[in-house]
Structure formats: C-alpha cells, structure tokens
Amino acid sequence: VNPNTLQLIQFIEQLAALVATSVVDLKNVISGASSKTVDQILDDADSTYDTIIAAAKVTPPPTA
Amino acid sequence: MSKSFLSVIAVAVLALSLAGCPKGTAGLATASDTIAHALADAEKGVDLAVANNQASTVEQAQFHALAAQVSQGGKDLDSAIRSGATAATISAKANVFLELFKKLSSDGVAGIKNPNVQLGISTALNGAEAALSVIQAQVGGTQ
C-alpha cells in the first residue's frame, strides 16, 4: 500500500474523531442533556475562539 | 460520498436541530458555539495534515491567520448576543462574520493544495456554514 495513502487514511480518521467529539458536545447542548446556560454556551464559544486566536500567534507567518 | 451531499446533510441536520431550540439568544449562542468548534476542528485538521506531510507550514500559517480573523469576528458577535444587542446590530456583526468566513473559505481552504486535505477541511467547516445560515435566518440579515 502506498505510504501516502496510509497517511491520508490516518489523517481522515483523526479528523473524523475530532468532528465526532464536537458533534456529541453540540448534540448535548441542543437536546438539553447539557445544562449549560446561554452565557455558558457563549463562554465555551469564546474560549474556543481564543484558542484559535492564540494558535495563530504561535504559528510562524507565511514566508512564501 | 460527495462533498455536496455531505453539505446538504450537515445543513439539514443542524437546521432541524436548531429548529428545536428555544428561539432567540439560545439558538444564536448554540450556532456561534457550533461555528467555533467547526473552526477549531478545521484548524486541527490542517495541523494534522502538516504533521502527516499532507500540507505545508505556509498553508498552515495562512489558514491559522484567517481562522483567527474569523474567531475575532465570532467573539464580536458573541459579545453582541451576550449584551442583548438589537437585531440590527447582531445582523451587522453576523454579516461581518460571514465575510470573514468567506475569506477563510476562498483564501484559506482554497490555498491548501492537496485536494484530499482541502476536501477534509472543507467538510469540517460545513457545520459552520450551516450555523451561519441559521444566524442569518434568525436575525434577518442578508447572506
């Protein structure tokens, strides 16, 4: 099997696991299984946005 | 399974799910949270692609920078929701957010050369696109 194909399969598996985790979290919020208030949901969203903003600061800028 | 089919499924599932939500701020907050997590998933996907030699660090940095801009727009929208801003204000914030998201899609996703990685990242962002549509529909903005 082409090593690139194996790498791609691994990538897709990992990405699918990430999306699945988020879907379960979201399902809990929507279904009411989560007891989060609106402020707590917004706090979670802001925290996630902050993580993305912080990641951009440590990623080297494009050089090409 | 085609990307367009996955997109339709994602939009339909999210729209139906949010339709069952309490109207108003809870729906908007859930949509924003959906977008935040979709962005985070897409960003992690790009990082994984770099780790697996499927994407370059230049592509990664460009995607991170654009995702950060979208995130700042998301925080502004959240702030408007949290403060109980008028529908017009929230709509304006949502439209700015939408424009930033479009830029991420056009420059960030399209900038990834590997078509399989591009497809994976685009699919991860489908939930965000659906949630943006829900926000626009709820606040009466234009898309």
Detailed description of the structure:
- The complex is a heterodimer of chains A (64) and B (143).
- Chain A has 64 residues and is mostly helical.
- Helices cover 78% and strands 0% of the residues of chain A.
- Chain A contains 2 helices and no strands.
- The longest helix of chain A is centred in the N-terminal third of the chain and has 29 residues, at 3-31.
- Chain A is flat and about 50 Å long.
- Chain B has 143 residues and is mainly α.
- Helices cover 82% and strands 0% of the residues of chain B.
- Chain B has helices at residues 3-19, 25-51, 57-82, 87-109, 115-124, 126-139.
- The chains are: A mainly alpha (64), B mainly alpha (143).
- The A-B interface holds A 7-8, 10-12, 14-15, 18-19, 22-23, 25-27, 29-30, 38-39, 41-42, 44-46, 48-53, 55-57, 59-64 and B 17-18, 20-21, 25-26, 29-30, 32-41, 43-45, 48-49, 52-54, 57-58, 60-62, 64-65, 67-68, 70-72, 74-75, 78, 81-82, 116-117, 120, 124, 127.
Which oligomeric form is depicted?
A: heterodimer
Distance between the termini of chain A: 33 Å
Written as H for each helix and E for each strand, in order along the chain, the element string of chain B is HHHHHH
- Structural shape of chain B: elongated
Distance between the termini of chain B: 27 Å
Can you give the mean pLDDT of chain B? 79
Biggest chain-to-chain interface with counts: A-B, 38 and 48 residues
β-sheet strand percentage of chain A: under 5%
Total beta strands of chain B? 0
Count of individual helical segments of chain B: 6
Q: Name the structural class of chain B.
A: mainly alpha
